Amino acid sequence: MIFTSYTYLVFLALVFLAHWSVPMTWRKPLLILCSYVFYCSWHWEFGFLLLGVSLFNWWYARSILQKHPTLPVLLGGVAANLLPLIYFKYADFLVANAAAVANLAGADWHPSSLNILLPIGVSFFTFQGIAYQVDVATGDEPADSLVDLLLFKAFWPQLIAGPIIRLYEIRDQLESPRSLDYADVAAGGQRILAGFFKKVVLADNIAPIVDLVFLNPSAPNALDTAVGILGFGLQIYFDFSAYSDIAIGSARLFGYCFPENFNWPYVSASPAEFWNRWHMTLSRWIRDYTFTPLTFMTRDRPALGHLWLLLAMAVCGLWHGARWTFVVWGVWHGLLLVANRTLLKSLFPRPAVDGEPTFRWRCLPAIIATFALVNIGWLFFRAQSLEQCAAMLQSLATLRGGWRPSVIRENSILLVAVIFAGLLLAQIGRDRWVEWTSRSLWGVNPWAVARPVLYALAILAVIICDRESQTFVYFQF
Amino acid sequence: MESRQDTGNTLWRIVRDRRLWLGPAPWIVLVLVWANVRIADWVPRLAEARKANLTSGDVGAYAAEPRFDTTFGEDPLSSWKFIPDATRQPFVALCGMSQMFCINDREPGDQTISEEMDDRLASRGVRVYGLAAPNLCTEEALFLLLALLERPETTPRAFLYGACFDKLRNEDLRPGYREFLRAHPALQTTWSQVVREHESRFPLAVAKLRKSVDEIQAASQQADESLEGKLRGAIGKFVPAVSARKELNGYVQHELFLMRNALLGIKPTSKRPIIRSRYETNRQLLELMMEICQKSGVQFIVYVIPLNPLSENPYIPEEYAAFKQWLQELASQRQIPFANLEDVVPSEDWGEFMGGPDFKHFRGAGHRRTASRLIDEFGPLLAPPVVGAATR
């Protein structure tokens, strides 16, 4: 059940009506049941995996970890959470790389693919489980009620592709009765509509252009490569932030407030700021459960901090997929973050503080530099192989073909350029938006008049651009 | 202790909230209802306009038993039955782009190239059937060839292909052909077999063919029988925007296309370089068609389509010259009959398009001249020299 499908909208509406109609004590069990229906709509067998992981975390945290909060016990819990992820996601990768190493050493081992079906969302609920174990080991109270924990693990808006929520972020909401008013419905509806628009109208229209560049057997020219990379940067942003919008909006309809996952990442003035704005719940997870513990353990040797940063980002890359291109992407960002702290410290300004405008003209060179570096990273992320990365980088470096594309049409270039310009304007104008929308013209607030029309147009645009519910990019992770 | 008194109150409270009724929600619904009423009114008119556009007018002029695909690739499933039965009488398939069926300034008695040829070859015991569609690309021509070869009844004696240079920048199957392929699993098997057999020799063509069949097979799995498909169908019955979403999408894309042309000053005759990767893929697809015909014992014939000698065209001269030379050399290498009909139709036989001379579509006289020339060039290959009775 894809978020942008009609099936999901009907499912959401039915669960919404049922949830707010049944007695309060039934609401959480109802949400758990519906979450499992949602999850099992892909492969029902994996519902048992999710249930097993949830029950294990419940039992282990309460019965073992809380009583013996030692490192070995914690590592046992973490390893148990990692097992399904390693089996389902990395077994093929590990075997293939082991075979490559063995063959280098003279062996003749050519294992065939294990063809293991990846349970959807496994990376997300694994990280959530690890965070829960670590939090309990470091002093947090485990969940009081099994129902709360089952809902925390399975609640469908965040189950498949995040935001990666930690128990302490949502504990109060799970433990207290939820309420709903018109503002919640309006805010939730707006977020869902924004998500549909970003995904169906923007991301899905850019996707074929990006595929054309990255999946074409012909070597692309420099212009194709540049447009393909820029296009993918836009596609993944709209795609993933759309998912987060629909997740946050859907949860809001049931009275739950999820943490934000994106905050205009492409106006970041430094790589460090980028990671404070991009997939924020994952970056916080990587910081809190990989980088910080490693740095803390070697606090007497601060020089190792840079190494841990690289390692943490490599883990972040590997989390996205069992392919070396993802590891290179992670290492690339690790290098950028290290450079941000050392060599390029003077180029990148300090991160924006709360209340400061999102877009700052004086930071324009740093914003452009960060945007370019992040986009180079997208090449590693999207490429099918390291060889393709090298070929495309060479194409860019040698300006192959000059201004002539060899793969894409001028229409594609125009579309990517228009969407990019639109995002740019939105980013620049965002901080003045509230001011503009509250102004009145001849006693009438133009925004109040335009808003229904814009929303209706957005709904029509979603219907017209709909291509039978394309899956989200982050589902593969 | 959680209260049970809240049961049902939440929804009722929201429904009674003044902000719901005085806010944007009713206006959004109103705008959507208005838009859907307009769309419901517009869809039938659009269908008429599209058909008129495809044929340059005269929508209802087709015979009960048409001699070419009068759905222009939109619904080959319905037009396929009109293909002459090859087990009873040999036929020639004439395949190409809109030049084959579009008649500018149509006058009574004007016929398309395939109809003209059918009339003239009928006396020699051979039928001609036109399989053309707007902007038909090489992959689509290959699709038509494979679809014809599926059954002895539709296997032609000769496959006559009008090569148009700018169609070598296009790829992909149109929805009508995709639907046909989806509905014919045996054709999918043949398609996959072609992919397997020619992978090493035509890698670009095969990569494209594989992509198409994979997409079609994936789409089949989530087809109309799925819950999502049924839901869309059901909602489409009440919401015209949903049922007409593909037409609306096409309309919006066309408007964007016109806007782009206006903004960038692009005209039908603006010189635009060919897209290299697509060109290479299409060249391989064309050669693959020749090979498949040769293996199947079907005579493949290729010709360069006529162009208006007085009109500008969007081709870069060197690229176009290289294309013609390549095609001629390839035909010669493979011993495929070839003709360059570029100058066959004089300037007075062409019409107008977007305020200037049409460089690719002609009047009825142009169709007659092209048909005559094709019969002159390839007559013995199309129909045996022995005169047979007209049996049409």
Provide a brief overview of the structure:
Chain A has 18 helices and no strands. Chain A has helices at residues 6-21, 24-40, 45-65, 71-104, 122-137, 146-154, 156-159, 167-175, 182-214, 222-252, 271-277, 280-297, 304-320, 324-341, 364-382, 386-397, 410-438, 446-465. In chain A, α1 (6-21) runs antiparallel to α2, α2 runs parallel beside α6 and α14 runs antiparallel to α15.
List its salient traits:
heterodimer, A: 477 residues, mainly alpha, 18 helices, globular, B: 392 residues, alpha/beta, 5-stranded parallel sheet, two-stranded antiparallel ribbon, 52% helix, 10% strand, disordered N terminus, disordered C terminus
The portion of residues forming beta strands of chain B comes to 5-15%
Give the end-to-end Cα distance of chain A, rounded to a whole number of Å. 17 Å
Gyration radius from CA atoms of chain B, angstroms = 25 Å
Number of helices of chain A: 18
User: Would you list the SSEs of chain A in sequence order as H and E?
Assistant: HHHHHHHHHHHHHHHHHH
Strand order of the largest sheet of chain B: 2-1-3-4-5
Number of strands of chain B: 7
Low-pLDDT segments of chain A:
none
Give the assembly state of these chains.
heterodimer
Rough outline of chain A: globular
Please render the helix and strand layout as text.
The complex is a heterodimer of chains A (477) and B (392).
Chain A: H1 6-21, H2 24-40, H3 45-65, H4 71-104, H5 122-137, H6 146-154, H7 156-159, H8 167-175, H9 182-214, H10 222-252, H11 271-277, H12 280-297, H13 304-320, H14 324-341, H15 364-382, H16 386-397, H17 410-438, H18 446-465
Helix pairs in contact in A: 1-2, 2-6, 3-4, 3-5, 3-6, 4-5, 6-8, 9-10, 9-18, 10-15, 10-16, 10-17, 12-13, 13-14, 14-15
Chain B: H1 9-16, H2 18-22, H3 24-55, H4 76-79, E1 91-96, H5 113-122, E2 127-132, H6 138-149, E3 158-163, H7 175-183, H8 185-197, H9 203-221, H10 227-238, H11 240-243, H12 245-264, H13 276-296, E4 299-304, H14 317-333, E5 338-340, E6 350-353, E7 356-362, H15 364-382
Parallel strand pairs in B: 1-2, 1-3, 3-4, 4-5
Antiparallel strand pairs in B: 6-7
